[in-house]
Amino acid sequence: MKLSDDFFERMKIILKDEYNSFVESLKLDRAKGIRVNTLKLSLEEFKEISPFSSLEPIPWEERGFYIKDDKPGKHPYHQAGLYYIQEPSAMAVVPALNIMPEDKVLDLCAAPGGKSTQAACYLNSKGLLVCNEIEPKRAKILSENIERMGIKNAVVTNNSPRELEKVFKGYFDKIIVDAPCSGEGMFKKEEAAIQDWSVENVEGCAVRQREILESAANMLKAGGYIVYSTCTFSFEENEETIDYFLKKHKEFELINIEKNFGFKSGLYEYFDNENLARAVRLFPHRLKGEGHFIALLRKNSGEDFSYTPLKSNVKKNELKDYYIFLTENLNIEIEENFYLTGENLYSFPKNLCTLKGLKVLRTGIHLGSFKKNRFEPNHALALSIIDRDAKRSVNLSSDSEEIMSYLKGDVIKAKVDDGWCLMLVDGYSIGWGKAVKGVVKNHYPKGLRL
Ligand SMILES: C[S@@+](CC[C@H](N)C(=O)[O-])C[C@H]1O[C@@H](n2cnc3c(N)ncnc32)[C@H](O)[C@@H]1O
């Protein structure tokens, strides 16, 4: 696929004497990366069991590693949520936000979930993570990734930024705006980005980004931070968008991001604002990763709002079958913040306000569903607990035929007492099975089977 001449002309203006190195870098294979899910295991543990032929640290994210191997999505550890496949430069955005465990974080343009699942590791199961995606199909994928990574404190919504604003005015401490963009930095990864590229599309994206940032500003607390990022090079979608925003919002300032690891300053020379140098540009000829732009904004003042906390909508007597399930099968107690939608029971994170009017795909951990006279655990519950939380478990080796059979949906034979059992791969939870007389019926979700 041929890149447009207009694109190269524009890159000459952006890069000046670095232009030729940039063009050369486009001929190289793109760097591949994975990020370890430290909600499930430590980096040391991962290094010991890593299925990859090499793990080279990505300098700007301690959980990130370059890998050489193909198909990292096919290994059972991926299904168990031990790592997330992510473009290395994309891993630089969340660290810039300096997330603290008790923060309320919004990921406004979240699918498929790279930044959300990374932010969840920084929150370390504390605080609140709201992951939003406007497109329904992409929101479903986002929700599945939140589930696979075993994230307990996340709410997944499928709304426009404007709809979210109605509920979350001045609510969040930190907001990630990984904006939809013309994707010039992803030409190696996504052929479609080349096909869709045009100057008109760049300009259209810039208009949309301004609207999204506007909503983000309204949902941020005074003292809070927004990290804005794109995977594109155009001025219009990067420095120009930030410059426009800062002119309109005097209550915000741009915070400096360190220029380590080959990061370049924001290209301020073309604007009447030297502060734009505080943003960063990642270029593929300066580091091992694709193109990115990152800007960190702080809101210095703003109105305070009050919220109605979300309350449990379940009475104790409605939970009888759930408690029977818990006593018979688990060694843990999840007894707080129950939320029931239809037959589905969730445990929602603390500090959540009412979500009235929003399209919510996941309100915290999906514990399971009430069937006739019984409670059936959900896949999300399996992925969010560890081996010793379950009364029964079946551990399969990652290189065994049995784990592949399990992931395909077959029954497994195992010496285990009757009842729900947590299925494990090398000790890490991967799904449910239900044992009767040594035969474990498969409860790996049909939509995820190999
Ligand atoms: C760059 S992608 C996000 C990638 C994601 N943050 C990650 O790290 O995996 C941008 C997302 O914004 C969504 N989007 C498109 N139009 C939007 C709009 N008007 N408001 C908010 N999000 C939008 C797209 O569907 C897309 O999923």
Automatic annotation (TrEMBL):
Coiled coil: none annotated. It comes from the Bacteria. Pfam families: Methyltr_RsmB-F (PF01189), Methyltr_RsmF_N (PF17125), Methyltranf_PUA (PF13636), RsmF_methylt_CI (PF17126). InterPro entries: Methyltr_RsmF_N, MeTrfase_RsmB-F_NOP2_cat, MeTrfase_RsmB-F_NOP2_dom, Nol1_Nop2_Fmu_2, Nop2p, RCMT, RsmF_methylt_CI, SAM-dependent_MTases_sf. CDD domains: AdoMet_MTases (cd02440), RsmF_methylt_CTD1 (cd21147). Residues 14-300 form the SAM-dependent MTase RsmB/NOP-type domain. Keywords: Cytoplasm, Methyltransferase, RNA-binding, S-adenosyl-L-methionine, Transferase. The active site is at residue 231. The keyword Membrane does not apply. S-adenosyl-L-methionine binds at residues 109-115, 133, 178. One of its GO terms (biological process) is RNA processing. GO terms for molecular function: RNA binding; RNA methyltransferase activity; S-adenosylmethionine-dependent methyltransferase activity. Belongs to the class I-like SAM-binding methyltransferase superfamily. RsmB/NOP family. PANTHER family: 28S RRNA (CYTOSINE(4447)-C(5))-METHYLTRANSFERASE-RELATED, NOP2 YEAST -RELATED NOL1/NOP2/FMU SUN DOMAIN-CONTAINING. This is NOL1/NOP2/sun family putative RNA methylase. It comes from Caloramator quimbayensis. The lineage of its organism: Bacteria, Bacillati, Bacillota, Clostridia, Eubacteriales.
